[in-house]
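B., you asked whether I could sanity-check this one before it goes into the benchmark set. Here's the sequence:
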Amino acid sequence: MDLLGATGGPVRIAGRGLPRDELFGWASAVAAEIRGADAVAVHATASLETVAAVVGGLLAGVPVVPVPPDSGPAERAHILGDSGASLLLAARDAAPRADGEPPFIPVDALPRDGSTTADPGAGATALILYTSGTTGAPKGVPISRGAIAAGLDALAGAWAWTPDDVLVHGLPLFHVHGLVLGVLGALRVGSPLVHTGRPKPEAYAAAAQDDGGSLFFGVPTVWSRTAADPSAAQALRGARLLVSGSAPLPVPVFERLAQLTGHRPVERYGMTETLITVSARADGDRRPGYVGTPLTGVETRLAGEDGGPVPADGETPGELHVRAPLLFKGYLNRPDATAESFTADGWFRTGDIATIGPDGWHRIVGRASTDLIKSGGYRIGAGEIENALLAHPAVREAAVVGTPHDDLGEQVTAYVVADGVAERQLIDFVAERLSAHKRPRVVHLVASLPRNAMGKVVKTRLAPPA
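And here's what the prediction gave me:
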């Protein structure tokens, strides 16, 4: 199927740009080199070579396996071996190459005048993306061409995304957010793409002023830093839409961005396995702390711990289940994990805890494994407490987890990056704003929070200061 649009604007990555036709000529040369391969790995730096390699895989009908450029030897070996990639694509000097890795094709040595294309069906695998691996070895997630097309079309409708937009972001090119939305989305819609190399507030501001950036993608860390840089934030006033995803956007950051930029950010929710399933709309309401309503073709429901239904009353949390044409069909080489992730009636169990209001608006409480705290008979969402802590002017970052407690089962424990404030002051600050059982019983003041490449806090690596 034709996954990429027929026409569109130029692509610029980290200061290097190409017209669309030249990019596709280069990608066609890549396609000619890899045709017939079972899968190809791409050393996914923020570069034109990465885009040419990925598009080349799509044109050839060969599944592409993006490899994080900062992956350690064990993770890299796992991804290359598990995926069955028979070739490795990168710029000549970009990729570290170890013994036993697939044969290497230097993308920057290929011509830019190819014309090779294939026409695989909608069910053919386009990408094999790997989960972040926070609870074990990363799992391979095959994403079909049809799922990507359906997901991008649904987002284009929700966000009124057209070829007249100029998309700006600086996100990694090996995940859904930066690669599928941030590159393939622009190529399918036909809008010019400006990738800033790194997602720095000053780079976003420059793209707004110099390139006419109208649609900006960022993760909460990017928007938090932008909100802390008033001049950069104010430069985004001429934009059309600011989109936040990959992790919950703290309410104080939402409100600060709205104040400085004049834009209430659009939040959305998705996973590697599902692509984007829930979002606020460009022409609709945008509520801090909420991720919107299901996209076209997406169904959601909540389930309790016993598997029974949870009411959509906006208050009662349950595990979010999703059913949609955007979903993957199962993990690569992991039938056990696939079976555990789907219910008997075909819904994907996201592992995320959410509430759904009577009007269909979704609020993500957090991961069932780390963000739902069971304390003294109460079910407490970590995100609500994190937002309360972030409302304190001295607090820069906050992460909340449940830790063992002899009497309560679990106690609310917070890890906070802050200046000039004591543990007791923060506990009292939260107690003044939330129910008594939600206040942290312990606050650890730390220098930083552990994060992965997408800016998500890795709560399994939180530890009290030595």
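One thing to flag: The mean pLDDT is 92. Otherwise nothing jumped out at me.
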